[in-house]
Amino acid sequence: METKRTIIVTVLNEHGVLSRISGLFAGRGYNIESLTVAPLLESNLSRISIVTKGDERVLEQILKQLHKLIPVLKVLEDEQINELESLLVKFSSSENIADLNAIFSAYNGKVLEVNEKNAIFMACDTPNRIESLLKAIKAYRPKDITRSGTLAIETN
Q1: Are 45 and 39 contacting, i.e. CB atoms less than 8 angstroms apart?
Q2: Are residues 9 and 71 both part of a single domain?
Q3: Last residue of a domain, one of 59, 77, 95
Q4: From CA 150, how far away is CA 127, in angstroms rounded?
Q5: Which residues have CB under 8 Å from 28's CB, separation 6+?
Q6: Among 93, 111, 89, residue whose Cα is nearest residue 101
Q7: Using an 8 Å Cβ cutoff, are 61 and 109 in contact?
Q8: How much is the pTM?
Q9: pLDDT tens for residues 108-140?
Q10: Distance between CA atoms of 60 and 76, rounded to whole angstroms?
Q11: Where does the ACT domain lie (predicted)?
């Protein structure tokens, strides 16, 4: 049975690290559903958040392979992290902006801009709630949608 897993990898912030990690996934036929990378404050380290899918055997293999990479210092999984995802959505300004504002407010969102052609909204919530928001706004015919990918941080 396939499950979705979020993994946080702390690595040395040096050239080629991201390429080596994504190569590990590609070389073994594993899919990356979401990937975000950012340097950690006041250090020579970066945090990589990876969302992937697979059965337990595949996920165990991914974790083992990540631990073997030299620039990898720490690998954390689902139980030890909090996740958020950001979303930007553009609608025609002819859509009901008040209804959309009420929906987005329920998902930690708000209107960013309204002009004569478009209305742009944003939301930041858990990946599951972002999926629910996307279902809730489908009837309003979004013109464009951009998602950030999962942002994750250690809880301990």
Answers
A1: yes
A2: yes
A3: 77
A4: 7
A5: 61, 62, 65
A6: 111
A7: no
A8: 0.82
A9: 999 999 999 999 999 999 999 999 999 999 999
A10: 12
A11: 6-80
